[in-house]
Amino acid sequence: MKYKQNVGEAKQRVAAWWKGEKLDRPVVYAISERKTPMKKLEPVKPPVTPEELFLDVDRKIAEARNNCRKYEYVGEAFPLIDLFMGPGCMAAYLGCEVNFAWDTVWFGEMDMPLWPNPGALKFDPENKWWKLHIEMMKKAKAAAEGNFLLNVPDIAEGIDILASVRGVSNLCYDFIDEPELMRVQIDEIMELGFKYHDIMYNIAKEPDGSSGFCAFNGWGPGKTGKVQCDFAGLMSPQQFRDFAVPFIRRQCRYLDNAVFHLDGLDALKHLDAVLEIEELKAFQWMPGVNRPDNDDPAWFPVYDKVVEAGKRLFLIEQVKPMKDYMENNNKIIKRYGPSPVFFSYLVPMSEDEAGELMTVAETKWRNK
After folding, report:
1. Is 343:358 a contact under the CB 8 Å cutoff?
2. Which among 274, 315, 277 has a CA at the least distance from the CA of 297?
3. Average of per-residue pLDDT across 67-75
């Protein structure tokens, strides 16, 4: 990679993290803004509409090239392009209405009066959103030229897609009224998800078979991705074990490296059930709005269970002063050691801040 130093060392450390091996320091994903870009930046016309924000692949490619020139990819960060078309965009491929906003994409439920209806949801190679997304991925991959990675989009297979298709309230009743048919429906949506993901993975993957995933800008050898069930907050513990755990386990078996994303306090009651899934390698906790950040000591009881279960900790750092990062991160390393920890600083920092961060990582956060 032209714009990434020590690529082999970075990949080796991340691969060892996924395997659960002992590391000399935690994995660190950080981006710093160069004081002077490496090359002249391309002119980029800002999007005029939310649709352009998400769908203008030419602008996204130019932005990815500019990012390579103006940012330093620190630690285990890699330059990349992310063709995000909303969380759970598989719903669009199946026929849901797509509503673009400046901050996200929403998918409207489909008019399906007979439900559950096994066989009703099918792979449609002619769906306009699917065709558009694949065309965008192929164009971005051709433009990457080995300088940046192409992430697999966040299609979010499984129950969350059924929530988009059916509507959240309707789906709550479906699990009560037609539990056996829902098992069949979940199996079908899983198989569809694998089919969509296979096609996207085969476009995005690197020559060594490794791949990145959209949600957290992660990377790993082989098929690597996020697993989730945000609908879990509305499920009882028994429902979650009966319906969600089997499909999460299947997703983890399908992927070579899987991190589970647990979203919100209402879903925290399912933590033990998630951690019992042997095939799951890593865990990421999103506390929700107006809650302490996920690196806060308030969540140490959660992380104690995660580490005790032999899972890795994927910690996404929010926007706050660097001194606050260091204060909490020092406590995390002191409690768990460096080996299970992946710190992902998604917001660009200054060169000085990045230098300070890596100095701390290489000295104070080292395995002794």
Report:
1. no
2. 315
3. 96
**29 assigned to some structural domain:** yes
> Residue 325: pLDDT band by 50, 70, 90 thresholds?
confident
State both tokens at 190.
Answer: 């899983």
Q: Is residue 25 part of a domain?
A: yes
DSSP codes of every residue in 95-136: T-EEEE-SS-EEEEPP---S-S-TT-S---TT-HHHHHHHHH
As a whole number of angstroms, the distance between CA 263 and CA 157 comes to 16
- Would you state the structure tokens that stand for residue 8, as one six-digit string? 């082999």
Amino acid 319: pLDDT: 67
Helices (H), the chain: 7-19, 50-55, 57-70, 90-94, 128-144, 159-166, 168-177, 179-204, 237-239, 245-254, 271-275, 300-308, 322-336, 351-363
List the CATH number of the domain containing 194: 3.20.20.210
| pLDDT tens, position by position, 93-114 | 999 999 999 999 999 999 877 7
Under a CB-based contact definition with an 8 Å cutoff, are residues 333 and 363 in contact? no
Tell me which residue range forms the domain holding 28: 7-363
